[in-house]
Amino acid sequence: MYNLLNIRMSLLEEAQGRERPSDNNINKVYNSILELVGNTPLVRLNKIPQQYGLTCEIYAKCEFMNPGGSIKDRIGLAMVQNAKKSGIVNDSTRFVEPTSGNTGIGIAMNAVLTDTKCTILTGEKNSSEKVSTMRLLGAEVISVKGDEIEAAKQMQRENPETIVMLNQFENMVNPMSHFETTGTEILCALDKVDMIVLGAGTGGTLSGVSLRLKQKYPGCIVVAAEPDGSILFDPCADEHPFLVEGVGGTWAPEVLDRSIVDHVEVITDQESFLTARELARKEGLLCGGSSGTAMCAAIKAAKTLNFGRGKRIVVILPDGIRNYMTKFVTDQWMEAHLFMDPPKHTMKWWNKP
Ligand code: PMP
């Protein structure tokens, strides 16, 4: 007869016999949350490639696992550290940064730990979830109608003594941090990469990761995932507003190296959001809209470029679902934007007999 003590003893023996967890992080304590930026997992996709008739391997780099919820935690940390090293940060410093939100979260997280003030300038289209997160981290958030980069530069010109603009669009620490961390992590985890698929906002991820991968595997194909309406990669394309956040634009930032791109896939808002939802439904990956853009581009590129068995694709999933809880995550939002048909059945009610 088993009693509680027997069960406990057998679990204990089993646990002692098992190998220690291979991930060192499990047995570690950290001095601050910033030590957990980066080192994100690469997860193999199972159902999605099969569903699209693809025999190549697809791996997702899960950047939503960063502590602030996005890939931009990496540059928040690297740009703040670099600014401190160069001696431009003091007790009266205020960081001022134009951002679609995720870099703002990354910078604000650094600012909160060093008691530095922080003002974030963001466009009206960006989600209230990101704005609330930045405010919770103590940042002042200003919604800008026009050009938020120009607004930030003007603030700095008016107050050069106190305001430090890290300027992710021009700061080479942005692509360098992806070269050194994101790209290197992919190379450490996989013994070959045939294709890398990523979107571009500043272009820092694309430039840094692609350069690192091509350095080791010159034949690695770089696929840019471009939102329909953006003209980052084709200035002659039809420019129009689009809803996916964090990627695309109307001009090429200094940190974007377009010459490294081998292939471009243009993805509509509907494709982006449906694919992001599919990543949750089929693979359990709770990622944001631009992850859907990248994933959809990967599926299309794999087909166009005939990627078959033995080929390996890495897709960057830049942020997580929690930035978009009031947006594409809900059926109602998808239906209101005509990305999904309204439900065929009306609500079912249960009546007490
Ligand atoms: N996706 C999301 C959700 C983002 O916030 C960003 C950053 N703007 C990107 C993708 C693109 O990253 P990068 O700026 O490195 O091009």
Q: Would you give an account of this structure?
A:
The longest helix is centred in the middle third of the chain and has 17 residues, at 173-189. Helix 9 packs across helix 10 (289-304). The N and C termini lie far apart (46 Å). The radius of gyration is 22 Å and the shape is globular. Strands 1-2-10-7-8-9 form a six-stranded mixed beta sheet. The protein has a four-stranded parallel beta sheet with strand order 5-4-3-6, with helices on both faces. It has eleven helices and ten strands. The chain has helices at residues 4-17, 47-51, 72-85, 102-114, 128-136, 148-158, 173-189, 204-216, 269-283, 289-304, 331-336; strands at 42-44, 57-62, 94-98, 117-123, 140-144, 163-164, 195-199, 221-227, 263-267, 312-317. The protein is of the alpha/beta class. The mean pLDDT is 94. 4'-deoxy-4'-aminopyridoxal-5'-phosphate (PMP) is lined by residues 70, 72, 100, 102, 199-206, 245-247, 288, 290, 318-319.
Instruction: Give the biggest beta sheet.
Output: 6 strands, mixed
Distance between the termini: 46 Å
Beta percentage is: 5-15%
Task: Name the poorly predicted regions.
Answer: none
Going by helix content, strand content and strand pairing, the class is alpha/beta
Specify Rg, calculated over alpha carbons: 22 Å
Neighbour order of strands in the largest sheet: 1-2-10-7-8-9
Shape: globular
Mean pLDDT: 94
Number of helices: 11
SSE succession: HEHEHEHEHEHEHEHEEHHEH
The total count of strands amounts to 10
Q: Into which percent range does the helicity of residues fall?
A: 25-40%
Q: Ligands in the structure?
A: 4'-deoxy-4'-aminopyridoxal-5'-phosphate
